[in-house]
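Here is one chain, start to finish.
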Amino acid sequence: MPVAVRPLPPELVEKAKVELFEDPKKLEDSIQHLKEWIAKQPHLKARTEDQWLAAFLRGTKFSLERAKEKIDLYYSLKTLVPELQTINHRHPKFMEIVKTGVNLFLPKSNNLTDPRVVIFRVAAHTPGQFTMPEIMSVGNTLQKIMYMEDDIFTVNGIVNVMDMKGATMSHFSQMTPLLMKKMVVAGQILVHGKDFEPLYKYVSKDILPLEYGGNGGTIQEITDYWVKKIEEYSEWLDEEEKYGTDESKRPGKPKTSEEMFGVEGSFRQLEVD
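Its structure:
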């Protein structure tokens, strides 16, 4: 049975081939291999949609062993890091957070071969209005949707931009070193304050919101886009509740949060641009 994976746009086919070693002829076999492997893991309950597994293969340059490790890590984090799922899409605070634009995943693309861009707007909310784990939960949910439907994201990756404008110490009151370590486990961060000019070297004005001097629509329009997208994925996100790991059933030694992240005292300072 052919895999149900959306064909890549022509501009991404070549990039995926050269940079990710993607071979459409092997895609079906690789996805089937992962499905069979997942079925044999007593501790793991994971999604097995073809499109979902294709995202993990692309994220590991089609190394089956690394894809297995990443899938296992993804669902282990879901179980061992409750900050990633403090609230779900049906929680009253969820849409409130989306509408602030604190996690602003830009839907527009200037070039299909450029990375997707997300702006973390530190001061988009009033201090104390939401907890950092709640904000992380929303960002994590939006990324799940992107795994399923955003080929630019799965092939090119993502650039994280942290907008510090208006931020106060109160905004960082809950951002412990350990929490920061969990936030950046997947990538690097570009940090910008009041001056957006340096940002344009990394991110085209064509995709940035109007409020950042760009032509990519307003923050309101971008948040409206995500509100609609979350509503479209509502039932799919409901299913997410049943996935994760049961560490008591893991062959060998169960994973623990301490093992994965250490203690706060051992946290090393992060280097940022």
